[in-house]
Amino acid sequence: RYSVERPLIPRLGLFIGNEGKVPYDFDEILGSLAPRPVYVLAPKYDRDAHDADVRAALGAARRVYELYEAGDKLHTDTPWDYNHLAADMQDRILLWMRQHAR
């Protein structure tokens, strides 16, 4: 979808049919941010990110954060909602940003 429907990442289209060969995954991206604070908003009914896949990626990234003794810096918010940015979600994000601003 990100390469065709909304070409935000057009080069991902090169991997259509060969998704297992994409040279990175979300757990690696999140893990590379350790030990910095990260807020992950992943609604349970997101059509682009299945809940089980999100939990697996977060579990792998959390292990990297724990190597840095920073497991508390990987914040996960998984509301029972679909992928949109409702006002209450925005409020939670802004509160987290205020708490973690330097």
Q: What does it look like?
A:
The chain is mostly helical. Helices cover 37% and strands 8% of the residues. It has helices spanning 26-32, 51-67, 87-100, and strands at residues 38-41, 74-77. It has a two-stranded parallel ribbon with strand order 1-2. Helix 2 (51-67) links the parallel strand 1 and strand 2 (74-77). Helix 1 (26-32) packs parallel to helix 2 (51-67). The model has no long low-confidence stretch (mean pLDDT 90).
Keywords:
102 residues; two-stranded parallel ribbon; mainly alpha
User: Whole-number average pLDDT?
Assistant: 90
The major sheet is characterized as:
2 strands, parallel
Measured as a percent range, the helix fraction is 25-40%
Instruction: Give the N-terminus to C-terminus distance in angstroms.
Output: 35 Å
* Bulk shape: globular
Provide the low-confidence segments as ranges: none
Secondary structure class reads mainly alpha
Task: Give the H and E element order.
Answer: HEHEH
Care to count the β-strands? 2
Strand order of the largest sheet: 1-2
Oligomeric category: single chain
Rounded Rg: 15 Å
Tell me the fraction of residues in β-strands, as a range: 5-15%
Total helical elements: 3
